[in-house]
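RECORD TYPE: protein structure
NAME: Cystathionine gamma-synthase
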Amino acid sequence: MDLEAIRSQFPNAVIIYDNTFQGLVNDKGQAEFADIIVGSCTKYIGGHNDLLAGYVSCADSEIYQKIWSARSSFGGILDNLSAYLLFRSLRTYDIRIAKGLENCLQVINFLEKSSAVVDIYYPGRNANRDQAELLERTQFHGGSVVTFRVEESVQLEDKFNRLNSTKMAPSFGSVDTLIEIPAYMSHWGKTLEELQELGLDFRTVRLSVGNEPVSYILDDLRILLE
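PREDICTED:
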């Protein structure tokens, strides 16, 4: 997302930016164009599927006081165990992100060679290659989530139950590789028209690439696609 362009078009707007997919230390200056940055600590920052948390940050003292006042009135204070687990996770954040990116690139290379894959969606590559300049200008990397669409002949529902290490879950950012069909899971309940507007169908798969040995992930993809 080009926050600089949005700020230029709407100079007086209060811009709230969700940083969850982008992650920490992956910004080349876009954050300065946002008034408020929010993010989920449950995903990449926590990274182990064992805590629920989030964060909000801002530079404007007036906005900060309003947020602090609301937080003080309504609660939302992190419990001790989750705070401890979050601090633990921050110590390995860079290592986990680097391994996830390394695995993700190998996964994309594998998907590109599969005749069962119709489209691949990843920032700056494949079906999203028109985003390459924006990605290069705003971020250091595209993350470790890749989405792809398969041929109609691939029986996804049957093969999901045969995967070995990959877990079915509508989430991302974990040390575990997670897979889902958004139309059945994270976007369940939407009409066909709504799914179409979002660019989704029942052959669309989202894969959050984790930190396992990449051979485990590729073996599961072979089961899914071959």
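COMMENT: The longest helix spans residues 93-112.
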